[in-house]
Amino acid sequence: MRHLPAIVLLALLASVMPAWADRIGDISETSVLEQAKRFFSFRDPSVRYAIIGSILLGISCGLMGGFIVVRKMALFGDTLSHAVLPGVALGFLWNMDKDPVAIFIGATLAGLLGGAMVALIRQTTRLKEDTALGIVLASFFAVGICLLTRIQKMPGNKGGLDEFLFGSAASIGRADIILMAVVTGLALLLVGLFYKELLVTSFDAAFARAAGFPVNVINYALTLLLAFSVVVALRAVGVVLVSAMLITPAATAYLLTDRMHRLLGLAALFGVMAGAVGAFISFLTTNIPTGPLMVMAATMVFVLAFFFGPRHGVLMRWWRQKSRSARVKRENTLKAVYHVLEAREFEGEGVSLRELAERRRETLDEARAQSGALCQHHFATLHDDGDAIHLTPDGWQRACEIVRNHRLWELYLTNEAHIAPDHVHEDAEIIEHVLGEETVRELERALNHATRDPHGRSIPGIADLATGSAPFGPPEPVTGYTPRP
Amino acid sequence: MTRWCSACAPDSLFNERPRDKRDRRNEPPPLEFHDLTVAYHKRPVLWGIDLEIPKGQLVGIIGPNGAGKSTLIKAAMGLLPLNSGWVKVFGEPIKKNLKRVGYVPQRESVDWDFPVSVMDVVLMGRYGHLGLMRRPKKHDRDIARDCLEKVKMLPYANRQISNLSGGQQQRVFLARALAQESDIYFMDEPFAGVDAATESAIVAILHELKERGKTLLVVHHDLPTAKEYFDSLLLLNMRVVAFGPTEEVFKYDLLQSTYGGRLTILSEVAEAVREKS
Amino acid sequence: MNELIPAFEWQQHVVAPWTTGLKSTLWIVLMGFFVATACGLLGNYLILRRMALVGDAISHSVLAGIGVAVVLALQLDTPTLFIAALLAGLAATLIIEIIHRYTRVKQDAAIGIAFTSLFALGVILISMKSGKVHIDTECVLYGEVALVPLEQFKLTLAPALAGAVDKLPMSEVYLRGNELVMAPDVIRMGFVALAVALLVWIFYKELLVSSFDPALAFSLGINATVVHYALMALLSVVVVSAFESVGAILVVAMLILPGATAHLLSARLPVILALTVLHAALGTLMGFHLATWLNCSIAGAFVVAGMGLFCLAWLLSPYDGLLAHWHRRRNRKARTAQRKLARTPRARETENLPKPLPVPPQLPALWARSSIG
Question: Which of A374, B168, B228, C71 has a 20 to 30 Å separation from C273 between CA atoms?
Fold first, then answer.
C-alpha cells in the first residue's frame, strides 16, 4: 500500500510511452530526450508554472471530487463545469483580455447561476434532476459558444480564448498560479476545519439537520468551493473535461479505501499525478491539448485500480474467489474421508485413495490431486507409498467441524423451518462452509444440543474435536464447542 | 361515503368474455413453485420455496419486512433471475402464459408525473391483447371504461395521473389489472396508504374475482385485517412457514415463527453467505 | 458593447436571408429543424426514462469512435462514421455497466468516467492526426451547420417531372433547369428524422408502457431490455447524424430542450410529441435569425433560442410555470392571512409590515437529493 503511488506512477509512464513515441516519430528520437531533460530541469518558468498549477488543481479538484462522488452528485459537477463557459467569455469581454481575475469572477458567477437554475427547475417543475442538469449543461454551454464565436469575429487580439475549451498547461501564468494557490489553500483550510460537519452532511443530511448542523450553509459553501475548483482548473484542463478531474481521481480513491479522510487524500494524490503526467506529455507534444491528456492519465490510474486494487480490484476478487473454491474443495475431501471412516465405523486409521475416489465418484488421479492439496495444508499425511492418507489432528478436527455444520444445519431446517428431510442436503452442502462458530453455538442451543441428524446419523461432538485423532467406535455424544487452538 | 360490496357492483363487468374455448377443467394448477431460490446481490431472499396454489384462491402473503414477499411475486412473474428451481403458470413457464397473468405493482414503483391520463393507464392493460402496431379499438375502450366504472373512477378518466390521491391511484392500477382479463393476479401491497372506502372497495373486487375462479396472490402487511380479507394465507419469511386456510394458519405459534424469534438464524446465515461467496 | 451586439436591422437580418440568401438559408433551417425534431422526439423518451444524461454520455463517446476511424485512416464516409459511432455508443454503455457492476462506484460517477475518458481519447486521436482530415476539435464542440449548403449533389430529372417539381414552392432553391440540386446532409438528416418519427409512431404503445412501468411491460410480453437497447442504438444513429452540424455537446440540448419545454406545457404524451416538433421548428427559425443578427455560431444560436423558449414556457406555463406558482402561493397566503385577520384582533397591525422576500431557490435540496438516472 505504501509503495502503491510509486508503482502506479511507473506503470502509468510505461503505458503512455507508446502514445508519445508514436507522435514524436516524425521529429527525431534525441529531441524527445532533450525535451524531457529540459522539462525535468525545470529551467523554463512555463514548465514550473505548469507543474505547480497541475499540482494545485489536482489537490483542489481531488478534494471536491471526493465529496461529490460520495454524495452521488458527480453529474452536478459536470453541469457546473460546463455552465462556466459563458462566464469565461464575459470575463474576457470585461477588458478584452485574458485577465485571470475577471475570468475567475465571471466563471464562478456563471457556475453558481447554473447550479441555482438546476435547483430552481427541480423545485418548481415536474422535470426530474437528470433533465434539469442536461438543460443547464447544454444551454449554458451554447450561450458560451455563441459568445466565443461572436468574440472571435470582433476586432482586437483575442488569441487563445479557445484554450479554455480543451486546456493548455503551457499558458498558465503567474497570476493563474496565485489564484490557484489561494483557492487550493482555501479548500484545504475549510475541509480541514469543517471535516466533521462536511462528513456528517454528506452521509446523512437529515440527521445532520436534526443534530443542529447548519446544513444549508455547509451545502452552499461546498457548492461555492466546487465552483472555485472548477474555475481554477479551466485554464489547464478546459471546460469540456474539467469534470473528469473531479470525478475520476475521486472514483479511483473510492475503489481503494473505505475511509473518507483517506479517500480525500488519495483523490488529491491521484489528481496531482494525473495533472503532472498530463502536463509533462503535453509539453513533449505540440498540438495535443492538455486537458484530454490529463483526463487520460486519470483514467489510466482508474483502470489500474479497477484491476489491481488490493481490496476491491477485479483481479484480487478473482483470486479470492479461486482460493475460496479451493478451500471448499479441500473441505469436501475432508468430509469424504470422514464419511469413509464413518461407513466402516471408524475402524482403522488410514483411508486408501481408492476408497476416497469411490466415495466422491471421481477418478483415482483426481483423488490423488486432492490428497496432495490436503497434505500441503497439513491436514493429512500420505502412507503406503502414497496410496493411503491419514488425517493429522488438524485435519481430523476440520473434518469433524464440516460434518457437524452440515448435520446441524440439516437438523435445523427440518426441525425449525419444517423442510422435508430429503430437501435439506443441498442447502447444507453450501452452508457448511460458511457457518461461523457463533452461529454454530446458536444452532446448538436452538436444537437443544441434539446428537442425531434428520437421517439418524450422529453429529460429531466435542470429544472428537478434543481427541485430535480418529476415535475408534462411534463418537461420544458430548455437546459444546471449543474454539480451535 | 359510499361503501360498496359485491352485491351492488355492476354485473356487466364480470360477464364472461370467453377468450379461448379450451376446456380448462383438467388443467394444471395456476401456480407452482419448486425449490425456488432467489438472491439479491448474492444474499438469499427466498430459499427453497415449494408451493402449489390451487385455482380460485384468494391468498394473502404475510411476513415481516424483508421476508421476500414482493420478491416472491416478482419471481413468479419472471421479473427476477432465479438462482435455482422453477415457477410454472398453468403447467408452463411464465413466458408462455404471460397473457393469463395480471399485475398490480406497488404504487411507488412508477413515476406518477408521467404524462398519461387515467384512461391511458387502464388501456395499457389491454396492450397484451393487441398486436404490434395495433392501436386500442373501441372494444378495448369499452372494456377500460367498464373497469373504471367498476372501481368508481370513470369520472376521472381524462385526468392526468399526478392529480389523483393515493387511493385513487391504487384504484386505477386495479382497473388496469381488471382490463388485463387475466386468470392469475399478483398484487403488491394494494392496501398501502389508501383510504378506508378504497380499501373495502378493493376487498369487494378481490372477492368477486375469486368467485369467478380467478387466482389472486396479494402481498399484505397488516395482520389484523389479513384475517378478515383472505381465505387462505401464506406465511413467508425467506421460507414458507405455513400455507393453508386462514383459520388453520392464523395461529400464534406460526405467526411467532414467521415474525420473530427462532428463524432469525436464517437471516444471519444469509448474511454469512453474502459475505463469504 | 456596441461591438458585441450589432444594431438589429429588420431588412438585413430577417428579410434578406429569405430573399437573396434563400439558397443557403433554406438548407440550414431545414437541417436545424430535422436535427431538432429527430433528437427531440427521441429525447422525450430519455426524459421519461430519466436517462437524459445517458444521452449526454453517448453523444460525447461518439467522438472516440470517430477518432479511431481517423487514426485507422478510414474514409470518413457515412457508413464508416455510423458504424464507428454505434460501436463507440455501445462501448460507452458497456463501460458504464462494467464499472457499475464490478465496483462500488455509483452510476453517476460511472457515467462521468466513461464519457470523459472516451471524449478525451477522441480529442487526442483526432488532434494527433489533425491537418489531414476535415474534422477539427472545434467542429467537435459546436459543429458547422453553416457548411451544409456548400456540399451539393445533382440529379437529372425527366422533363415532365421537372415541370411538376417546378410548380412546388421555392423551387428556385433546388431546381436548376432539369437538375435537382440538394444538400446531401440535409436529405440524410431528413430521412433520419422521418425514421425516428415513424418508429415513435409504430412503437408508441411499447415505448409508452416500457417507460412507464417496465414490470407491466414484461407481463404484457414486451421485452424492456430490447426496447432499451433499441433506443440506445437509435440514439447513437441520431447523434452521429447530428454530430457534424451541431457538435457533440450541443446535441445534448437538442435532445433535452424540446421535450423538456413540451413537458412543462402539457401532461399528455401525444400533445407533448407535437409540441416537441413545434419547439424544434420555432427554435430553429429564431436561432437562425439570432445567428444572422449576432454573427455567431448558428448551432449555438439554435440552442440559445430553444433555451429562450424553454424559459418562456417555464415562466408562463399554466400549471407548471413560475408565474402560476407565485400566483397560487400568493392566493394561499392571502387566504391564510384573511383567516388570521378574522381570528386575531391585532392582525390589522401586520398589514403594514413589509412583504416577506420571495424564498430564494434552495440549492441544498439538490445536495440532499442524490439519485440520478
Answer: B168
Q: What is the CATH number of the domain that holds B186?
A: 3.40.50.300
Q: How many domains does chain B have?
A: 1
ipTM rounded to 2 decimals:
0.82
- List chain A residues with pLDDT less than 70: 1-32, 41-43, 156-160, 286, 417-418, 420, 423, 461-485
- Residue B112 to chain C, least CA–CA distance (Å): 9
Instruction: Number of A to C CB contacts under 8 A, please give it.
Output: 268
Residues of C in contact with B160 (CB under 8 A): 267-268
| Residue-level pLDDT at C36 | 94
Q: Is C117 within 8 Å of A296 when comparing Cβ atoms?
A: yes
* B35, B48, B262 ranked by CB distance to A446: nearest: B262
Grid cell digits, residue C197: 418519427
Which chain A residue lies closest to C56 (C-alpha atoms)? A134
DSSP readout, A252-266?
A: HHHHH-S-HHHHHHH
Q: What is the average pLDDT across C108-114?
A: 90
pLDDT at residue B17 greater than cutoff 70: no
Count of pairs with CB atoms under 8 A, one residue in A, one in B: 44
- Which tens digits make up the pLDDT trace of C209-233? 999 988 888 888 788 888 888 888 8
Domain that holds residue B140: 28-67+79-276
Q: Tell me, yes or no, whether B16 lies in a domain.
A: no
Residue with cell 438546476: A118
Q: Residue C343 — very low, low, confident or very high, per pLDDT cuts 50/70/90?
A: low
Q: Where are the beta strands (DSSP E) in chain C?
A: 153-156, 175-176, 179-182
Helix (H) or strand (E) holding A458: none
Kindly give, in sequence order, each residue whose CB lies less than 8 Å from that of residue C167, ignoring residues fewer than 6 positions away.
none
Question: What residues 5-64 of chain B have any CB closer than 8 A to a CB of chain C?
Answer: none
Q: Mutate one of B265, B267, B274, B275 to test the A interface: name it (highest A CB count within 10 A).
A: B265
The CA distance from B248 to the nearest CA of chain C, in Å, is 33
**Across the interface, do B266 and A417 touch by the CB < 8 Å criterion?**
yes
CATH fold label, A4-312: ABC transporter involved in vitamin B12 uptake, BtuC (1.10.3470)
Q: Which residues contact B245 (CB under 8 A, 6 or more apart)?
A: B231, B232, B233
**Distance of residue C368 Cα from the nearest chain A Cα, in angstroms:** 6
CA distances from A118 to A262, C110, C309 (A): 31, 21, 17
Cα distances (angstroms) measured from residue A4 to each of A153, A273, B81: 50, 12, 39
Q: Which residues are bridge partners to B39 per DSSP?
A: B44
Cα–Cα distance between A64 and A229 in angstroms, integer?
7
Measured over the CA atoms of residue A258, residue A261, residue A265 and residue A267, the dihedral's sign is positive
The boundaries of every CATH 1.10.3470.10 domain in chain A are 4-312
The rounded distance, in Å, linking the Cα atoms of A223 and A373 is: 58
Q: How far apart are CA C29 and CA C21, in angstroms?
A: 12
Does B79 have pLDDT greater than 50?
Answer: yes
Residue B200 lies in a domain: yes
- Write down all domains in chain C, each with its CATH number in brackets: 10-253 (1.10.3470)
What per-residue confidence (pLDDT) applies to C288?
92
Residue B8 domain-assigned (yes or no) = no
Q: Residue length, chain B?
A: 277
d(Cα B144, Cα B123) in Å, to the nearest integer? 6
CA dihedral (C33, C34, C36, C37) positive or negative: positive
Whether residue B17 is contained in a domain is answered as no
Domain span(s) for CATH 1.10.10.10 in chain A: 323-485
Q: Under CATH, which architecture does the A323-485 domain have? A: Orthogonal Bundle (1.10)
Whole-number Å distance between alpha carbons of A42 and B230: 81
Pairing mode, strands B43-53 and B31-40: antiparallel
C219–B77 CB contact, under 8 Å: yes
Decide if B48 and A423 are in contact by the 8 Å CB cutoff: yes
